[in-house]
């Protein structure tokens, strides 16, 4: 295959996708780890040249992984970062941090294509490879192997790897980490991970390795007890990181969990005993500021489109939706205007920065004083009832929709039935309008039409939150704003 760009790379890696044959349907699920190990052996075990930090959990995996990479950058380490899913661009799955660069960076186009060429050289036609379980490598298995190969080729010293789903049987669990990290755990993917919290915690705890240190956050007695049991069995030193601190930490990402994830990441990097970066005396108070500049797509991301304020967040659990709702005002009032100007200045006809900033502030502040809408979709078997209960109490308009990805099942009609039951038993709710739409674009059009009809004009600023799925947020591509 000829690899000219990232689209060719993705076409190659997605080439074995078959909606009728996915890892969940393997006769013996325990073969999943051996499948990835077999694939890695065929590539010459590139993961053996990397110091791997493995991250699992229900929410906050991506931000924790990103913070770890940023902190390693400050210690002059080059780090590959493997995240999932991507939001706007496939390259978000394979990024890096380097001490000469700002934040998390995408590789150059030729670096992605060169790695794919080498992968094809090792695997030849991967559609003809039969791994344990009787089917060719899945897309996620190929993504994971590709990440390890890409990071080794680019001479990364560390690789921070986020699990896909769960942990115990995730393809990434074929890797041997130097540290395991488990973020907050709650009910999610109950069709895959188990119906109760203890079962889900057990699957997440599956990344704990024999003798390898594990760092985690408190997720309640039931979850904590599972982590302690598994860590004891594996002789893994287990640290519950205390996030109750009064220290001043500046983070672009807002909210209690963002702060907790940063502190967790910091403790992980401290455990590596790397030479500490020494700031000048005048800058020591700003150390946490430098480390807190991480931003990732659809994590409290704000977009201004004409007079509409869109808040995109991939919150997909009950706790994360609760926190998103409680943080809306904080997020809106603390938007980085420089980021808005860099991304969305094309929408505004203001010749100077000061005028642009004033108009942004006006739109942002006024959006908090009007009716607010939410566009919501879920993928997989998640706690829809818990999330919908929060939405009906905090939004005037709810639009239920579905994601368009062929990889994820989504049913807006099922959500509507669940919502109707909640409305029948919920008193003093805020929601007044409920719509159903087949796509994100249709949902946005429905919200805009309703707002104009309600206000009588299209100049009033309104806030619309898009949440429930990173896949849904990803359908609002930045190019759509041009």
Structural overview:
The structure is a single chain. By secondary structure, the chain is α/β, with parallel strands linked by helices. It folds into 2 domains: 6-291, 3-Layer(aba) Sandwich (UDP-N-acetylmuramoyl-L-alanine:D-glutamate ligase); 301-481, Protein-Tyrosine Phosphatase, Chain A (Alpha-Beta Complex). It has 17 helices and 14 strands. It has helices spanning 6-13, 31-42, 61-74, 109-123, 139-153, 190-193, 197-204, 221-233, 256-270, 287-291, 318-333, 337-344, 353-367, 384-394, 412-425, 440-455, 470-474, and strands at residues 51-56, 79-82, 94-97, 105-106, 158-162, 179-182, 214-216, 238-240, 301-305, 308-313, 372-376, 397-400, 433-436, 462-467. It has an 8-stranded mixed beta sheet, with helices on both faces. Helix 2 (31-42) packs across helix 5, helix 11 (318-333) runs parallel beside helix 14 and helix 14 (384-394) packs across helix 15 (412-425).
List keywords for this structure.
14 strands; 482 residues; 8-stranded mixed sheet; 13% strand; 6-stranded mixed sheet; UDP-N-acetylmuramoyl-L-alanine:D-glutamate ligase; Protein-Tyrosine Phosphatase, Chain A; alpha/beta
The CATH architecture name of the largest domain reads 3-Layer(aba) Sandwich
Label the overall shape: globular
Measured distance between first and last alpha carbons: 33 Å
The average pLDDT value, as a whole number, equals 87
CATH class of the largest domain: Alpha Beta
Given helix and strand content, the structural type is alpha/beta
Unreliable parts: 279-284
Helix content: 40-55%
| Integer count of domains | 2
Q: So, the CATH homologous superfamily of the largest domain?
A: Mur-like, catalytic domain
Strand order of the largest sheet: 4-3-2-5-1-6-7-8
């Amino acid at each position: 295959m000829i690899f000219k760009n990232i689209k060719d790379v993705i076409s190659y890696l997605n080439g074995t996708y078959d909606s009728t044959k996915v890892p969940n349907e393997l006769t013996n699920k325990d073969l999943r780890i051996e499948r990835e190990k077999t694939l890695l052996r065929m590539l010459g075990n590139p993961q053996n040249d990397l110091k791997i930090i493995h991250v699992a959990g229900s929410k906050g995996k991506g931000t924790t992984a990103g913070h770890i990479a940023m902190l390693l950058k400050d210690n002059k380490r080059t780090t590959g970062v493997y995240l999932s899913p991507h939001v706007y661009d496939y390259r978000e799955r394979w990024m890096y941090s380097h001490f000469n660069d700002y934040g998390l960076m995408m590789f150059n186009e030729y670096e992605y294509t060169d790695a794919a060429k080498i992968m094809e050289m090792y695997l030849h036609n991967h559609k003809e490879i039969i791994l344990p379980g009787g089917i060719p490598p899945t897309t996620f298995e190929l993504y994971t192997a590709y990440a390890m190969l890409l990071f080794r080729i680019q001479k990364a010293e560390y690789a921070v790897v986020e699990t896909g789903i769960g942990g115990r049987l995730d393809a990434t669990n074929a890797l041997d980490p130097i540290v395991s990290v488990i973020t907050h755990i709650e009910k999610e993917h109950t069709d895959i991970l188990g119906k109760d919290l203890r079962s889900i915690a057990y699957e997440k705890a599956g990344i704990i390795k024999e003798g390898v240190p594990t760092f985690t956050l408190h997720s309640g007695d039931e979850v904590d007890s599972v982590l302690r049991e598994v860590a004891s069995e594996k002789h893994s030193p287990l640290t519950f990181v205390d996030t109750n601190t009064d220290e001043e930490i500046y983070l672009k990402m807002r909210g209690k969990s963002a702060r907790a994830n940063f502190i967790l990441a910091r403790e992980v990097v401290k455990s590596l005993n790397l030479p500490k970066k020494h700031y000048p005396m005048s800058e020591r108070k700003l150390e946490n500021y430098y480390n807190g500049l991480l931003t990732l797509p659809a994590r409290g991301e704000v977009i201004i489109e004409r007079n509409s304020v869109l808040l995109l967040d991939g919150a997909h659990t009950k706790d994360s939706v609760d926190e998103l709702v409680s943080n809306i005002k904080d997020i809106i009032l603390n938007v980085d205007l420089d980021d808005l100007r860099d991304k969305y200045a094309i929408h505004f006809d203001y010749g100077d920065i000061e005028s642009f900033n004033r108009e942004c502030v006006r739109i942002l502040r006024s959006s908090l004083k009007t009716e607010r809408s939410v566009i919501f979709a879920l993928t997989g078997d998640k706690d829809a009832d818990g999330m919908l209960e929060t939405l009906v109490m905090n939004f005037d308009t709810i639009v239920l929709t579905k994601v368009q990805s062929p990889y994820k099942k989504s049913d807006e009609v099922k959500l509507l039935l669940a919502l109707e039951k909640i409305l029948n038993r919920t008193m003093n709710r805020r929601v007044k309008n409920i719509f159903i739409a087949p796509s994100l674009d249709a949902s946005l059009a429905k919200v805009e039409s309703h707002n104009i009809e309600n206000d009588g004009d299209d100049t009033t600023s309104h806030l619309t939150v898009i949440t429930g799925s990173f896949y849904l947020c990803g359908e609002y591509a930045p190019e759509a704003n041009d």
